[in-house]
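R.M. (postdoc): so does anyone remember the format we settled on? I'll just put the structure tokens first.
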């Protein structure tokens, strides 16, 4: 069994791999890790390019595009390692980026997963939207980060360079014990993509396992390489999967009240898209809510299992208030001011 396996899921990302894989191979192998690329049914030249230009990289071939969640589930069945790193194909890593993560995890067996500090590849002085210096979630299911609230991304001046517990670690660079991943059931393949890592982290945290950000390690993430932020497909998946995640994981006493508030907030979001002339995104929100109600019965068994396995009733990293209220009504745009 290997100590660390870095696993990159690829779908038609030949040029992205050609740009970013060199740093991953160089600095990961230097730290003793094995690098895998799991190809998710690509129709471009990804596989041929990998075989020709990156002979040390282990290839896992999936027959079709299984999505982010199920793609990783299938890939990790073919990986034997104590720790696995789910790494996006558009991430540039730095020298010895794995060492602080391994050291921390070895010393803290109560921690199931961690993430490095994520900075923007395009604007390297800024945190990156998807993860920054660790993820949190509010009462109504809205994710935010240490270093990013709503659309406001902070400049990294070292203000968040401490290791702290978080609610979720980003799927862009998720360092996780293979045993914890499998024991929790892995990513939910029904999500296809988006919110699946937060759902997994919620299950782990509710079962008493911890998650942290280790800022001694830094990586740079392009972000939005598969679906752009304003893409209606991404809007649909984010809204639908967020509702599914809430249904799967919320304690029974909160479920009805949270879902009522979310219905109002979702239609406010749809109205906002309408007023901005973004009709495709408006309909994406409405379709997402309809899809959730259609799918809800199929997630009943997963909800029942999650509730049975809860050992931590109150999760400190899930805030009791609304991040929307903090941001829009109270003007709190920096994590340090919350």
């Amino acid at each position: 069994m290997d100590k660390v396996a870095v696993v990159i899921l690829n779908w038609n990302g030949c040029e992205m791999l050609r740009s970013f894989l060199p740093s991953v191979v160089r600095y990961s192998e230097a730290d003793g890790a094995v690098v895998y690329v799991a190809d998710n049914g690509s129709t471009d030249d990804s596989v041929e390019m990998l075989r020709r230009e990156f002979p040390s990289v282990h290839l896992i071939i999936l027959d079709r595009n299984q999505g982010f969640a199920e793609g990783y589930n299938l890939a990790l069945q073919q990986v034997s390692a104590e720790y696995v790193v789910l790494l996006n194909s558009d991430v540039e890593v730095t020298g010895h980026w794995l060492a602080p993560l391994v050291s921390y995890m070895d010393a803290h067996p109560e921690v199931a997963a961690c993430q490095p500090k994520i900075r923007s590849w395009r604007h390297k002085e800024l945190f990156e939207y998807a993860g920054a210096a660790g993820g949190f979630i509010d009462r109504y299911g809205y994710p935010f980060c240490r270093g990013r609230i709503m659309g406001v991304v902070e400049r990294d001046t070292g203000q968040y360079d401490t290791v702290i517990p978080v609610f979720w670690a980003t799927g862009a660079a998720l360092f996780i014990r293979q045993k914890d991943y499998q024991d929790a059931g892995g990513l939910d393949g029904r999500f296809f993509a988006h919110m699946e890592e937060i759902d997994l982290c919620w299950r782990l945290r509710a079962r008493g396992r911890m998650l942290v950000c280790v800022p001694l390690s830094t990586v740079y993430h392009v972000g939005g390489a598969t679906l752009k932020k304003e893409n209606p497909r991404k809007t649909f998946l984010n809204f639908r999967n967020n509702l599914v995640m809430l249904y799967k994981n919320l304690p029974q006493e909160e479920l009805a009240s949270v879902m009522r508030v979310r219905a109002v907030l979702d239609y406010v979001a749809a109205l906002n898209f309408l007023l901005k002339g973004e009709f495709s995104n408006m309909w994406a929100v409405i379709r997402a809510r309809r899809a959730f109600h259609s799918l809800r019965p199929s997630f009943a068994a997963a909800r029942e299992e999650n509730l049975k396995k809860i050992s931590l009733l109150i999760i400190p990293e899930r805030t009791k208030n609304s991040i929307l209220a903090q941001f829009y009504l109270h003007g709190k745009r920096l994590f340090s001011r919350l």
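R.M.: ...and that's the designed sequence above, right after the tokens. Also worth knowing: The first helix runs from residue 14 to 30. The first strand starts at residue 2 and ends at 10.
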